[in-house]
């Protein structure tokens, strides 16, 4: 299958590209810079120059492909306005890609986030979150899933709060970065809230399986660890960096503060049973041991 992928050179993108190529697919990768294009070529993909805002490029990429995987996001959490801009850009990109695939029965795999459900681990049967600071992303993905009624084999892989590899990535990576800057390995509240996680290499396998097997309109959870307490995550970060570990104000995390403070464990039981997906790489707490002082 010839697969058009956005975000192919980000944290998870190279793992997805390698997983696709290793299983007989070819890859056309969106590349917004010369450096990204060179990285895509070096990985074995064919680069197509452009970013998420280049809607004509997205249409052209989808037209050349047998399937599409969307991973790209601006990841600008510096202010509510910057985040809103990133969400709007992604929403327009998803709508454009979806329209290009209508009536083709080709697969379209989008990424989303695992929802938070009070009092229990969320499951694939729970609704995609459409409210809050990143609710716009959920609304856009809900639109992608709705394309199932218009001849698109659309599906969504929900990623947990931390997608990690070699001790970096996701919410845990944000904690590490703030710890380096502030001199304190902090956590919001009492730190008992739980965050799910997955290794990037395991998530990559699930994106491939969804591309190959997922039925139209289905949702899957790329969850390796159902939920580690944030204070345990901060404790490993603090030990690796030689920093004190303590609670810090929620405001430390800007527009993500409300999300960081929430208890949000998540299950992947259905995904494992239905698609035969089984995480094999290190857990988050194990992987954080790779943090360099």
From TrEMBL:
Write out the ranges of the annotated region (Disordered): 117-136
InterPro entries documented for this protein: Epimerase_deHydtase (IPR001509), NAD(P)-bd_dom_sf (IPR036291), NAD(P)-dependent_oxidoreduct (IPR051783)
What lineage, starting at the top, does this entry show? Bacteria, Bacillati, Actinomycetota, Actinomycetes, Pseudonocardiales
Q: What start-end ranges are recorded for coiled-coil regions in this protein?
A: none
Q: Which organism is it from?
A: Kibdelosporangium banguiense
Q: Gene3D superfamilies given for it? A: NAD(P)-binding Rossmann-like Domain
Q: Which domain of life is it from?
A: Bacteria
**UniProt xrefs under Pfam families:** Epimerase
For this protein, the record's CDD domains field holds: SDR_a7
According to UniProt, the name of this protein is Nucleoside-diphosphate-sugar epimerase
Residue span, NAD-dependent epimerase/dehydratase domain? 3-217
């Amino acid at each position: 299958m010839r697969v058009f992928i956005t975000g192919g050179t980000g944290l998870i993108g190279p793992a997805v590209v390698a997983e696709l190529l290793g299983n007989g697919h070819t890859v056309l990768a969106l590349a917004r810079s010369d450096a990204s294009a060179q990285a895509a070529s070096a990985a074995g993909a064919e680069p197509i120059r452009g970013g998420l805002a280049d809607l004509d490029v997205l249409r052209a990429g989808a037209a050349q492909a047998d399937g599409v995987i969307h991973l790209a996001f601006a990841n600008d959490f510096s202010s509510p306005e910057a985040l809103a801009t990133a969400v709007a850009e992604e929403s327009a990109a998803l709508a454009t890609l979806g329209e290009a695939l209508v009536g083709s029965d080709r697969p379209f795999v989008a990424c989303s986030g695992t929802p938070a459900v009070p009092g229990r681990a969320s499951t694939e049967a729970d609704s995609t979150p459409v409210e809050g600071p990143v609710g716009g992303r959920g609304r856009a993905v809900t639109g992608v899933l709705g394309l199932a009624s218009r001849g698109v084999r659309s599906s969504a892989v929900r990623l947990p709060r931390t997608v990690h590899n070699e001790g970096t990535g996701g919410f845990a990576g944000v904690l590490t970065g703030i710890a380096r800057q502030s001199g304190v390995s902090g956590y919001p509240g009492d730190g008992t809230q739980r965050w799910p996680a997955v290794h990037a290499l395991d998530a990559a396998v699930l994106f491939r399986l969804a591309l190959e097997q997922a039925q139209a309109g289905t949702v899957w959870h790329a969850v390796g660890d159902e939920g580690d307490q944030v204070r345990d995550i901060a404790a490993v970060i603090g030990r690796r960096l030689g920093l004190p570990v303590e609670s810090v104000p929620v405001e430390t995390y800007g527009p993500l503060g409300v999300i960081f403070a929430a208890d949000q464990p998540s299950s992947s039981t259905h995904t494992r049973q239905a698609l035969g997906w089984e995480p094999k790489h290190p857990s988050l707490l194990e992987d954080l041991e790779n943090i360099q002082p």
